[in-house]
């Protein structure tokens, strides 16, 4: 259990920082939904979706590549991966920045050229700092990693409150626009360079042909896999604009629907944080344990506890989604799609399962399989959204998420067991999954008409489920020790 405690400790630090940061950052959801209309936030969601996809292109799979080769030669791996990222990101940001006037109308937002220029700079900064952040993770400097991330969020939030509330209150002529969101992100990200100056100053340019051939051979499938994976995650916010008929909903067009969906999607933040925190701590952990003979059994136990924790989050957030939405989604027009939240949460849980399953092809250097699995998911995402959006609206996006990650899990598990067998105990998890889904379904079906009473009931049920899960697992753990 020592390795599991170590992993849990690292995950807790990353998780606490991420959760604390996102909770603080969630103040912006209330601020944005109070000030901006859904169609305005639809533009913001679309542009940030493009940004997330491009960031994968900028980093070119170098984070995982750095972890793979850092254990052999830290400085050489650091210099080589940073060099690739600097060259790629500088070239791409230059192209985007100087062609913003052409790109803005191309993606359907002709007035967004200035925002695209700012996003080009944000992308450049984020990609340059990706490997320095990876170095902090490799060196187990989770506290510094967390503090910089939280500081970035606090600065971003402070600037947005200043741009959207404080300055307009002082100067009524100051124009409030969505541009303030992008500008605040730009300034906050630029200040991270100063916070990580020690790691930045350690970067050395290294273009050794042999080393480059080695790391690019390893990273290219990971890059393509990451690109397909990010498209799986972000593409729905782009496809809504193009495949949801403006007449489908009587109260909003496709741009407004994008805004509503993007804010609803954020209510699944706790599941996304759990998956993100696990990825931060899990990736270096799996690599460090890969050569141990007991690694398969250890990885199976990691999967077991990850799924249990994910199911607990699924139940708690789903039961209390109305209460959470009343705090963060300030205008009622943003709350019309809350029925999607349990589906989004479950889809993200399945994605976390896939991250666990996918470790086999990373530690065996068979990263090409990751590309194949991501392509499977991308095909499901595209077909699901294109076919379902015109028929069932935003529900099609949520269903596509579940189908996408389920397909990826199935093929990854089947092929993975042939190359790196891991004794997963999925049968033991099945009763937990069925109970969680049933509980959430009943919670959605039976609601008390009084909002306060309904909230109290759901909070009590959430507490009971948490305690029950703890007692059951503690008994089973004690029984195994005996």
Describe the structure.
The chain is globular. The protein has one domain. Helix 18 packs antiparallel against helix 19. Helices cover 82% and strands 0% of the residues. It has helices at 2-25, 27-35, 38-59, 62-70, 74-98, 100-106, 113-138, 142-170, 179-195, 197-201, 209-243, 254-265, 269-289, 295-319, 321-328, 341-357, 359-363, 368-392, 395-419, 426-445, 451-481. The chain has 21 helices and no strands. The protein has 482 residues and is mostly helical.
List the helices and strands and how they pair.
Layout: H1 2-25, H2 27-35, H3 38-59, H4 62-70, H5 74-98, H6 100-106, H7 113-138, H8 142-170, H9 179-195, H10 197-201, H11 209-243, H12 254-265, H13 269-289, H14 295-319, H15 321-328, H16 341-357, H17 359-363, H18 368-392, H19 395-419, H20 426-445, H21 451-481
Helix pairs in contact: 1-8, 1-13, 2-8, 3-7, 3-11, 3-12, 4-5, 4-7, 4-11, 5-7, 6-7, 7-9, 8-9, 11-12, 11-18, 13-14, 13-16, 14-16, 14-20, 14-21, 16-19, 18-19
Concise summary:
This protein has 482 residues and is mostly helical. It is built from 21 helices and no strands.
Main pleated-sheet profile: none
Helix content: over 70%
Based on secondary structure, the structural category is mainly alpha
The helix count comes to 21
Strand content: under 5%
Assembly category: single chain
Structural domain count: 1
Throw out a few tags for this protein.
single chain; 482 residues; mainly alpha; 21 helices; 82% helix; globular
């Amino acid at each position: 259990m020592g390795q599991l405690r170590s992993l849990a400790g690292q995950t807790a630090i990353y998780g606490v920082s991420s959760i604390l940061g996102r909770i603080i950052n969630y103040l912006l959801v209330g601020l944005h939904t109070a000030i901006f209309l859904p169609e305005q936030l639809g533009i913001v969601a679309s542009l940030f979706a493009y940004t997330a996809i491009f960031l994968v292109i900028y980093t070119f799979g170098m984070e995982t590549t750095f972890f793979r080769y850092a254990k052999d030669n830290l400085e050489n791996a650091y210099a080589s991966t940073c060099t690739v990222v600097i060259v790629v990101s500088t070239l791409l940001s230059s192209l985007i920045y100087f062609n913003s006037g052409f790109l803005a109308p191309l993606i359907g937002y002709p007035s967004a050229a200035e925002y695209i220029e700012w996003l080009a700079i944000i992308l450049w900064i984020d990609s340059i700092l990706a490997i320095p952040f990876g170095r902090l993770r490799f060196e187990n400097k989770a506290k510094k990693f967390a503090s910089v991330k939280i500081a970035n969020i606090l600065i971003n939030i402070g600037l947005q409150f200043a741009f959207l509330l404080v300055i307009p209150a002082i100067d009524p002529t100051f124009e409030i626009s969505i541009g303030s969101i992008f500008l605040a992100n730009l300034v906050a990200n630029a200040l991270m360079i100063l916070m990580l100056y020690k790691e930045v100053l350690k970067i050395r340019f290294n273009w050794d042909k042999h080393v480059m051939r080695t790391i690019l051979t390893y990273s290219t499938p990971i890059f393509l896999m990451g690109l397909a994976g990010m498209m799986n995650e972000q593409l729905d916010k782009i496809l809504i604009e193009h495949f949801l008929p403006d007449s489908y909903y009587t109260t909003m067009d496709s741009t407004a629907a994008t805004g509503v969906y993007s804010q609803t999607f954020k209510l699944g933040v706790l599941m996304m944080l759990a998956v993100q925190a696990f990825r931060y701590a899990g990736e270096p952990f799996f690599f460090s344990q890969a050569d141990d003979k007991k690694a398969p059994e250890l990885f199976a136990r990691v999967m077991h506890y990850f799924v249990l924790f994910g199911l607990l989050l699924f139940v708690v957030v789903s039961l209390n989604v109305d209460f959470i939405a009343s705090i963060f989604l300030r205008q009622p027009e943003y709350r019309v799609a809350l029925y999607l939240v349990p589906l989004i949460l479950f889809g993200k849980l399945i994605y976390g399962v896939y991250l666990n399953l996918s470790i086999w092809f990373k530690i065996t250097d068979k990263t090409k399989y990751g590309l194949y699995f991501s392509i499977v998911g991308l095909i499901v995402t595209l077909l699901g959204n294109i076919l379902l959006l015109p028929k069932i609206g935003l529900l099609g996006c949520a269903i596509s998420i579940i189908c996408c990650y389920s397909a990826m899990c199935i093929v990854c598990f089947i092929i993975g067991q042939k190359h790196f067998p891991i004794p997963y105990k999925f049968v033991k998890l099945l009763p937990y999954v069925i109970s969680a889904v049933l509980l959430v379904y009943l919670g959605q079906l039976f609601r008390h008409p009084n909002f306060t009473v309904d909230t109290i009931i759901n909070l009590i049920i959430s507490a009971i489920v948490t305690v029950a899960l703890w007692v059951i697992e503690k008994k089973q753990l004690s029984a195994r020790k005996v």
